[in-house]
């Protein structure tokens, strides 16, 4: 096999070395346009996991690297004169130039041909002349651009400017320092990479960078200015650059990583923000996976498929964490007024990869200090602290999220709803929410949806609320009121979600006559003044019945493409009257409905609003709009905003992943200072504790975990050895409050081995 490697960075060099070591008969050539000792950037951080892979694949490289590493385990967060240290993290770094020298030496020893100061032939030429072309040519990959139609790259530029610099001394920890200037917040990321040297990255929002005049400074002047701003962190010492220029981070994603016999590796295939680790780490891991796939698979196409299959989910997870981290730093200004320890905890857990429980294992004293600063009692996890909304005090921060059950008869909830909601109330959650309860027969999603539009509905719901209040004292139950809009008159979910009924359809209505699925869904009737007034009346009538039925909280459903959500999104509201156009006008009708409901809902009972903070579609609602929507509802008296996303248009492209919707709740809470409910793939009590303690959410709503385990909250308490008042076991269930034994644990372990 003849292999061409484009790019002599760590990923390309390590791929070349591995491929040659695994098969010495391979003819491998590396093209690098720079000189051997040219390098950009300074230090490289590698994880223990990556080092383990290197040790297994090439002990010689591992030994050479081990001799060079600087190791430390602490992170310092410095903000407003306070330096807080968290330990137990574990880092290993070395100079990028030294890493390249080790890889150069290894490649030469194995017989890899290294061509420096040489531009590689075109991608097409190499593909024709070689059996395999490894494109490790970086974020600006010419190979990727030459085959753009095949790789289908998406490159996203972000909102901060940053510059790579170095200091001629070693920090004693990974240091994050915040400087609040007259132009805005700036941050320093610093870490040692040698006994006498550290990498220093200075980062700030684009508008801060311009206001501070960095756009008018040359590289030397920028470096001097950064040293003055962070003089305390640097001990008054200077910074130095290395062809260092201000740049904007770009996230690279490709639909495919291979085309014919050409494969992308490292930054050419994907990038992840430097604040969660090194792109070098990912490139080295790519090289390990590619070499393994070529060894294990019967032919090249199978190997390239296996390589991508193995690495793509790993990279997707890393990129989700990286986006969360870079967004945190972009929105740094919203966190600056947090208490010092909460700020540090928030920073450390920003990517969702370090969590409350994980950080407690690393540094229990640090987490305890954060909790005490927040007023938590020792031994009480954050999720088991009370929270007050208007006249309602919730005993803990767990919400059973609304879940459509499609099991009603003519809008009337029955035994299934009693058992479902009653079981979750007995399971310990602070607040149990109904599914979307519809305000009219025509406002139902399906024939199986519940309602509050008839007298018999009120009595059926009262039966459920009385059970909750009597059998699970201290548990609150809330009702979510909504109208299906253009997404109504459809089949039960398991019979065909969002598909029209085969017969018995009713006329649906919406802000504009736009079907949900063009050519499939019913074309809705665009509501006129009389229709708007009638639906507003239906909401108030349902709210009165909800109050009489004994609900503790009412949530207005303005999300997921249902009627009120349809007014908010520019993708579904094309009106030209007073209810369409700019966001203020699109908000008008949902706010009218909110005001009407609030006027009849008891004053001491809270009202929340669920919104879709993004449509996940071009031209739709975005996070800035969501902040404006939340601000408007809060000004009208909403006690909390329940922050969901999407389901507004069928061609959405959600960025699914663990806790993927929580950054939107975080943004609203910390921009506006209003209570929020976070939802969206929050799957563990550790996630809940992390979000609450970091100040990203006030309540956490979980759906699927409560389907899997109705006693999810009580089991979370048992897992954390919590036995306080926020999670009481119902008396008939107390015998089950300890995990049952699962097998013998008394067998003696062998003590001696005899030959």
In short:
With 755 residues, the protein is of the alpha/beta class. The protein is built from 27 helices and 28 strands. It is globular, with a radius of gyration of 29 Å.
List strands and helices in order, with pairings.
Elements: E1 2-6, H1 10-22, E2 27-32, E3 43-46, H2 48-57, H3 59-66, E4 70-72, E5 75-79, E6 82-86, E7 91-95, H4 96-110, E8 113-116, H5 123-129, E9 132-135, H6 142-146, H7 148-151, E10 153-167, E11 174-181, E12 184-194, E13 197-205, H8 206-211, H9 219-229, H10 231-234, E14 247-254, E15 258-259, E16 262-264, H11 279-296, H12 300-330, H13 340-348, H14 356-362, H15 364-373, E17 387-389, E18 392-394, E19 398-400, H16 415-426, E20 431-438, H17 455-471, E21 476-482, H18 493-496, E22 509-510, E23 525-526, H19 529-549, E24 553-558, H20 563-568, H21 583-586, H22 588-600, E25 607-612, H23 623-635, E26 640-644, H24 662-672, E27 676-678, H25 685-694, E28 699-702, H26 704-708, H27 712-719
Parallel strand pairs: 1-2, 1-9, 2-8, 5-11, 9-16, 19-20, 19-28, 20-21, 21-24, 22-23, 24-25, 25-26, 26-27, 27-28
Antiparallel strand pairs: 3-7, 4-7, 5-6, 10-13, 10-14, 11-12, 12-13, 15-16, 17-18
Helix pairs in contact: 1-4, 1-11, 2-3, 2-11, 3-4, 11-12, 14-15, 16-17, 17-19, 19-22, 23-24
């Amino acid at each position: 096999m003849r292999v061409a490697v484009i790019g002599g960075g760590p990923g390309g060099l390590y791929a070349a070395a591995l491929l040659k070591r695994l098969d010495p008969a391979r003819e491998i050539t590396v093209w690098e346009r720079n000189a051997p000792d040219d390098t950009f950037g300074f230090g490289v951080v590698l994880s223990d996991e990556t080092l383990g892979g290197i040790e297994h694949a090439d002990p010689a490289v591992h030994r050479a690297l081990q001799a060079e590493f600087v190791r430390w385990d602490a992170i310092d967060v410095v903000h407003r004169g306070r330096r807080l240290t968290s330990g137990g993290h574990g880092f290993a770094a070395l100079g990028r130039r030294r890493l390249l020298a080790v890889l150069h030496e290894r490649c030469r020893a194995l017989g890899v041909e290294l061509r420096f100061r040489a531009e590689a032939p075109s991608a097409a030429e190499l593909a024709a002349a070689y059996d395999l072309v490894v494109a490790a040519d970086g974020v600006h990959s010419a190979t990727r651009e030459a085959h753009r139609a095949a790789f289908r790259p998406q490159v996203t530029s972000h909102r901060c400017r940053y510059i790579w610099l170095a200091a001629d001394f070693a920090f004693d920890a990974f240091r994050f320092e915040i400087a609040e200037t007259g132009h805005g917040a700036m941050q320093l990321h610093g870490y040692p990479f040698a006994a006498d040297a550290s990498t220093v990255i200075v980062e700030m929002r684009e508008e801060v960078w311009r206001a501070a005049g960095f756009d008018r400074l040359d590289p030397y002047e920028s470096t001097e200015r950064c040293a003055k701003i962070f003089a305390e962190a640097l001990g008054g010492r200077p910074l130095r650059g290395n062809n260092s220029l201000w740049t904007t981070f770009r996230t690279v994603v490709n639909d495919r990583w291979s085309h014919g016999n050409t494969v992308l590796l490292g930054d050419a295939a994907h990038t992840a923000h430097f604040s969660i680790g090194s792109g070098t780490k990912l490139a080295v891991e790519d090289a390990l996976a590619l070499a393994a796939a070529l060894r294990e698979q019967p032919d090249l196409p199978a190997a390239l498929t296996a390589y991508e299959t193995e690495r793509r989910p790993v990279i997707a997870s890393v990129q989700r964490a990286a986006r969360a981290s870079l967004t945190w730093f972009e929105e740094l200004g919203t966190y600056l007024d947090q208490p010092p320890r909460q700020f540090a905890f928030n920073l450390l857990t920003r990517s969702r990869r370090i969590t409350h429980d994980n950080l407690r294992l690393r540094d229990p004293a640090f987490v305890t200090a954060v909790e005490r600063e927040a007023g938590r009692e020792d031994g009480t996890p954050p999720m088991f602290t009370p929270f007050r909304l208007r006249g309602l005090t919730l005993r803990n921060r767990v919400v059973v999220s609304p879940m459509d059950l499609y099991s009603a008869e003519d809008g009337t909830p029955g035994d299934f709803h009693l058992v479902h909601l009653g079981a979750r109330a007995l399971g310990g959650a602070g607040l149990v929410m109904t599914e979307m309860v519809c305000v009219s027969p025509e406002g139902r999603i399906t024939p199986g949806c519940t309602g509050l539009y008839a007298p018999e509905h009120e009595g059926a719901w009262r039966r459920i609320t009385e059970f909750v209040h009597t059998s699970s004292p201290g548990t609150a139950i809330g009702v979510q009121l909504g109208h299906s809009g253009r997404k109504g008159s459809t089949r039960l979910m398991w019979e065909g979600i969002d598909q029209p009924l085969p017969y018995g359809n009713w006329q649906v209505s919406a802000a504009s006559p736009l079907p949900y699925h063009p050519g499939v869904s019913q074309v809705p009737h665009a509501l006129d003044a009389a229709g708007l007034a009638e639906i507003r009346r239906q909401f108030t009538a349902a709210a009165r019945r909800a109050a009489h039925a004994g609900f503790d909280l009412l949530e207005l459903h303005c999300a997921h493409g249902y009627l009120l959500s349809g007014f908010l999104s520019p993708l579904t509201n094309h009106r030209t009257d007073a209810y369409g156009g700019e966001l203020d006008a699109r908000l008008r009708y949902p706010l009218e409905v909110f005001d009407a409901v609030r006027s009849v809902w008891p004053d001491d009972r809270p009202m929340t609003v669920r919104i879709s903070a993004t449509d996940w579609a071009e031209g739709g609602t975005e996070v800035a709009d969501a902040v404006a929507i939340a601000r408007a509802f809060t000004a009208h008296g909403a006690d909390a905003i329940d922050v969901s996303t999407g389901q507004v248009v069928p061609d959405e492209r959600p960025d699914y992943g663990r806790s993927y919707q929580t950054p939107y709740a975080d943004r609203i809470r910390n921009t506006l200072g209003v209570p929020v409910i976070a939802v969206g793939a929050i799957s563990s009590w550790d996630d809940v504790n992390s979000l609450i303690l970091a100040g990203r959410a006030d309540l956490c709503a979980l759906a699927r975990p409560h389907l899997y385990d109705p006693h999810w909250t009580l089991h979370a308490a048992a897992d954390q050895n919590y036995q306080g008042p926020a999670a009481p076991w119902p008396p008939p269930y107390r015998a089950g409050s300890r995990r049952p034994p699962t097998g013998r644990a008394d067998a003696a372990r062998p003590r001696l081995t005899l030959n």
